[in-house]
Amino acid sequence: MNMQVKLPFDEMLVDGVARDIYAAYADWLSNTPPEQLESKRQEAELLFRRVGITFNVYGETAGKERLIPFDVVPRLLAAREWKLLSDGAMQRVRALNMFLHDIYHSQDILRAGLVPNSILAHPQYRPEMIGVNVPGGVYAHIAGIDIVRTGEDQFYVLEDNLRTPSGVSYMLEDRRMMMRLFPELFRKYSVAPVEHYPHMLLNNLRAVAQPGIQEPTVVLMTPGAYNSAYFEHAFIAQQMGVELVEGQDLFVRGNAVYMRTTEGPKRVDVIYRRIDDEFIDPLNFNPDSMLGVPGLMTVYRNGGVTLANAVGTGVADDKSTYIHVPAMIRFYLGEEPILNNVPTYQLSKPDELQYVLDHLAELVVKEVQGSGGYGMLVGPAASRKELDEFRLRILSCPSNYIAQPTLALSTCPTLVAQGLAPRHVDLRPFVLSGKSVSMVPGALCRVAMKEGSLVVNSSQGGGTKDTWVLN
């Protein structure tokens, strides 16, 4: 279980010399004045502000919006590296979709003893979904798989995002920005395109409409303009050419959902929702929700509309479920996992709890339902007071936490105030499931802008980079 902390793997340089994949870029970089890079960074910031690519930080002053820092130095991946990542991510999502179908139907994996029955008491397990057959057996139509790197061919899955994964707009806009700022670089490199993602997404969503519908109507449902990811909702809807709707724009009649339009009601077949389960239908979940559609869940259960992602997917992206994904891959697919999990301690087990408490200063501890970098402790960066306070939180409910070694995440050169410097990165490729499972050759690359920081989340000050998969 123990993994030795070592110097981080530098994806660009080895002993001060550029790796083969970065050679042409390093040559270009050495001939580019630092002030030119800084000028391009400022231009990018101005353009992003003009487009409105901001996000709201919950808990801060109402209405305060931030621009996610954009780094003008791309992250490069070789075709063989991408094949490893994409094959591993798609394998994982196939197994997770089969797991979701299983736990809402025959529950074979529970009877086999590979996943504990306690999962049925999980707050994201939705009894309303028991026995419901979703089109194609697809529950997670859009999945974001967070991957970190520690060495040449050492990649680990950090977590699975299956509810309403965000960030794809940055993958697309970062690429557009790089092509605008550095067209000469795209002549040096054969970079795989990502612009077709909205088209792929729309085709996948149409493919999971109820059988017999020739031209399915797809909409994207948002909580509204005050949501932190509203820019992304509007952007993706516009890119797909579908209507962006709120709950008040939809209504239920019979066993169907309709959208209000200037030409009268129009039936909706597929709803790509960016709203959490508990808010989608006040008659079935939170009765105080003003964001949802009364009666939507009844139509969904009866097969009158498809929801993407399906209700009840949250039980599969919890950090306590993550531990069991390798077993799911073996159980459902009869394959060995292509990508490994980060070794993980389950604090519900007394011996592992004791180990974590004894080594708290060396580990990363996370709430099983936490996200966005909240509810976690990075032991090596924590003060004695923070360690003591977190210890008490763990002891109050050990099963609410998991712990992992502090991995030496790989670094990429990043433009900071002092010039180019290595900063830690992670990767979130997006896996689409419809008639088949597919991915575009690109991803959201998040970068920790602070020196030494391992926390890449935008809510915690992280930035983004363009990811170049080389043909």
Note poorly predicted spans.
Answer: 1-5, 58-63
Biggest β-sheet strands, sense, barrel: 5 strands, mixed
Number-wise, the strands total 25
Q: Using only CA atoms, what is the Rg? A: 22 Å
Q: Globular, elongated, flat, extended or rod-shaped: what is the shape?
A: globular
Number of helices: 13
Compute the number of structural domains: 2
What is the strand arrangement across the widest sheet? Answer: 5-25-24-21-20
Helix content: 25-40%
- Estimated share of beta-strand residues: 15-25%
Arithmetic mean of pLDDT: 91
- How far is it from the N-terminal to the C-terminal residue, by CA? 36 Å
Secondary structure category: alpha+beta
Please explain how this structure is put together:
This protein has 471 residues and is of the alpha+beta class. It has 2 domains: 13-210 and 305-342 and 407-469, no CATH class; 345-405, Dna Ligase, domain 1 (2-Layer Sandwich), CATH 3.30.1490.270. It has helices spanning 23-30, 34-51, 79-103, 108-111, 168-181, 185-188, 197-207, 230-240, 296-301, 319-322, 325-333, 350-358, 384-396; strands at 13-14, 17-18, 54-56, 65-67, 70-77, 142-151, 154-161, 218-221, 243-245, 250-253, 256-259, 266-268, 270-273, 306-308, 340-341, 345-346, 363-367, 376-378, 401-405, 411-416, 419-428, 430-433, 437-438, 444-447, 463-469. The strands form 7 sheets. Strands 5-25-24-21-20 form a 5-stranded mixed β-sheet. The chain has a 5-stranded mixed β-sheet with strand order 15-7-6-22-23. A 4-stranded parallel β-sheet has the order 9-8-13-14. Strand 11 and strand 12 form a beta hairpin. The two termini are 36 Å apart. 42% of the residues are buried. Mean pLDDT is 91; it is low at 1-5 and 58-63.
